[in-house]
Write a structure and sequence with these properties.
With about 450 residues, the protein is an alpha/beta fold. Helices cover about 25% and strands about 25% of the residues. The longest helix is centred in the N-terminal third of the chain and has 19 residues, at about 120-135. The protein is globular, with a radius of gyration of 22 Å.
C-alpha cells in the first residue's frame, strides 16, 4: 500500500517507549534524526537512542501555563516558544501524553471547508501538516492519500461543486469532482450495484488530504517544545483555580500550587469542568463521546480516506500502515464523559461499513474506543480571550480537533503572545452567537449534537 510519507525518518516506528521521557531539569539538546541514525541504531538493537524529553518537577511560577497536554496544548507551547521567543512555559497534563483525545481519533487530515474563517484556518493547518515532519525532525507519518467524499444524488453533486469551486477560488487548488467512471477506476471495490442501499453517483475529492499518526504527532511536538525549554508536567491534574480581581493567580494541582501570569485552557471535552473551576457557569458547548473502531490487519485494500453521509448515515474509513481498517460514524447523542464504546454504535457503524464496502462483511473487529468531543452550538471552535484578563480558551472542536492541531496551536500561541486574535480567527470567539455570526459549516442549526 502506498503511504506517501513526508520525510525519510521513521522514528515513531522504532523508538522504544521507555526512552520518551526523563527526569533532568535542564532542556535537552534535541537529537537530530536521519535515515542514517535509524539504520545505525537498528544494527545496535536500538540501544543508541537518547531520551526525547524531560520529566521535570513543576516550578512554583510560570509566565504561561497551558492546561492540557494533548495535541493542541503541545502545539501551542511549541509555537509560543518557536514563533514568539517566549520562555518559562509549562504544559499541565492530568495523565500522560497521548492518553486523551490525542490517541482516540481516526487521524484524518483535510481542509475542504466552506465558511469564511474555517476555510482559511484549515488550509493553513494543512500547509503546516505538509512540512511538519521536517519542521519537528520527527516522522508524524502524514500520508497524503486523498479524501474522497461519496455523493449520492444530483443535489449532493451540486452542493459539493459549490463548496469545491469556492475552495479553488480562495486558495485550495486541489478540489475535484469525480464522476462515477473515474471513482470506479480509483476505488473499484465500493458498492456500485444498482440495488445498493446508498447508490453512488460520484465523489468530491481533495488529493492533498489524508491521515497522520496521532501518537507520533504528540511525541514530535513534545520533544520539539522541550528542546525550546517548555516544561511538560505529566500526571498533574488541575483541581481548582485562585483568582484575584479579574485574573487567575494560581492553579491548584495534584502536584502542588502553580502560579501563572497567563493561563490557556486546551482540554477538549473537559472544557466545561475547567470553565467552572475558573468561576463561570455556562459555556456554549456540550460534551459527547465519539467512538472509533479498528479491524484486524488486512492486506492492502484502501489507499484513500472514504467518507459518506446520506439518509441519516455517517461513516468514514481508511486503512492504517499496519493494515487495520480504521473507521467511525456518528457520535453518541447523549452527553457523556465516558471513554468506552457501546453496542448500538457498533451496530450502526458496522451497517454503514458493509453497505459501502461489502467485502468487510466477514472482517473481525479488533477494538473500539471513544473520545470526548466538546461540541459547540454551530460546529466551529473557540480560540479566544475570556472574561478574565489572563485566561485564554481553545475549545469547541467537534469532529475537527485532530486535523486542526498545527493551526490551532499556531493561532492560540499568537493570541496568548499578542493578547489579540489573528484576523483569521476573529470570529472564533464566545460572543459570535450574541453578534449573530454563525460559522455553521453543515447548516445544521444551533444543536451541538448535529454537527458531527
Amino acid at each position: 500500500m502506498k503511504t506517501h510519507r513526508q520525510g525519510v525518518f521513521a522514528v515513531a516506528d522504532v523508538l522504544p517507549r521507555r526512552l520518551l521521557g526523563h527526569n533532568t531539569g535542564n532542556p535537552l539538546e534535541m537529537t537530530r534524526f536521519s535515515a542514517w541514525s535509524v539504520f545505525r541504531n537498528g544494527l545496535s538493537g536500538q540501544s543508541g537512542w537518547t531520551r526525547q524529553w524531560r520529566d521535570p518537577e513543576p516550578k512554583k511560577q510560570y509566565d504561561i501555563v497551558i492546561v492540557g497536554g494533548g495535541l493542541h496544548g503541545l502545539a501551542t507551547a511549541y509555537y509560543l516558544a518557536k514563533n514568539h521567543g517566549l520562555k518559562n512555559i509549562a504544559i499541565l497534563e492530568k495523565g500522560w501524553l497521548g492518553g486523551g483525545n490525542a490517541g482516540r481519533n481516526t487521524t484524518i487530515v483535510r481542509s475542504n471547508y466552506f465558511m469564511p474563517g474555517n476555510r482559511q484556518f484549515y488550509e493553513h493547518s494543512l500547509e503546516l501538516w505538509e512540512n511538519l515532519s521536517h519542521e519537528l525532525n520527527y516522522n508524524v507519518m502524514f500520508s497524503q492519500r486523498s479524501h474522497i467524499a461519496l455523493l449520492h444524488s444530483p443535489g449532493a453533486i451540486d452542493g459539493a461543486a459549490r463548496r469545491y469551486n469556492t475552495m479553488r477560488l480562495t486558495g485550495t487548488p486541489d478540489a475535484e469532482i469525480w464522476d462515477l467512471e473515474k471513482l470506479k477506476q480509483n476505488v473499484p471495490h465500493l458498492n456500485y450495484g444498482p440495488d445498493s442501499r446508498f447508490p453512488i453517483l460520484g465523489a468530491a475529492v481533495q488529493k492533498r488530504a489524508g491521515t497522520a499518526r496521532h501518537d507520533a504527532v504528540a511525541w514530535g511536538y513534545a520533544r520539539a517544545a522541550d528542546a525550546l525549554g517548555v516544561d511538560i508536567i505529566q500526571n498533574c491534574e488541575v483541581t481548582s483555580t485562585s483568582r484575584s480581581g479579574n485574573s487567575i493567580t494560581s492553579l491548584t494541582t495534584s502536584r502542588g500550587e502553580i502560579s501563572a501570569k497567563k493561563v490557556g485552557f486546551a482540554v477538549a471535552g473537559n472544557t466545561s469542568r475547567l470553565w467552572q473551576m475558573a468561576g463561570f457557569n455556562t459555556l456554549p458547548i456540550e460534551s459527547h463521546k465519539l467512538q472509533a473502531f479498528v479491524s484486524e490487519p488486512l492486506k492492502p485494500l484502501l489507499d484513500q480516506v472514504v467518507v459518506f453521509g446520506v439518509g441519516g448515515a455517517h461513516f468514514y474509513i481508511s486503512q492504517s500502515d499496519k493494515g487495520g481498517m480504521v473507521f467511525g460514524g456518528d457520535l453518541d447523542w447523549y452527553k457523556s464523559y465516558a471513554q468506552r464504546g457501546n453496542l448500538p454504535i457498533v451496530q450502526d457503524v458496522a451497517e454503514c461499513a458493509v453497505s459501502i464496502l461489502p467485502c468487510l462483511g466477514r472482517v473481525r473487529l479488533l477494538r473500539h474506543w471513544s473520545g470526548v468531543m466538546d461540541m459547540s452550538m454551530d460546529g466551529s471552535p473557540f480560540i479566544c480571550k475570556t472574561p478574565l484578563d489572563n485566561l485564554y480558551l481553545n475549545a469547541g472542536w467537534n469532529y475537527g480537533g485532530f486535523k486542526a492541531s498545527p493551526a490551532s496551536g499556531w493561532y492560540f500561541a499568537d493570541l496568548i503572545a499578542n493578547d489579540r486574535p489573528h484576523e483569521t480567527i476573529a470570529n472564533f470567539n464566545l460572543d459570535r452567537f450574541a453578534q449573530g455570526v454563525s460559522l455553521d459549516e453543515r447548516g445544521a442549526g444551533p444543536d451541538p449534537k448535529l454537527h458531527g
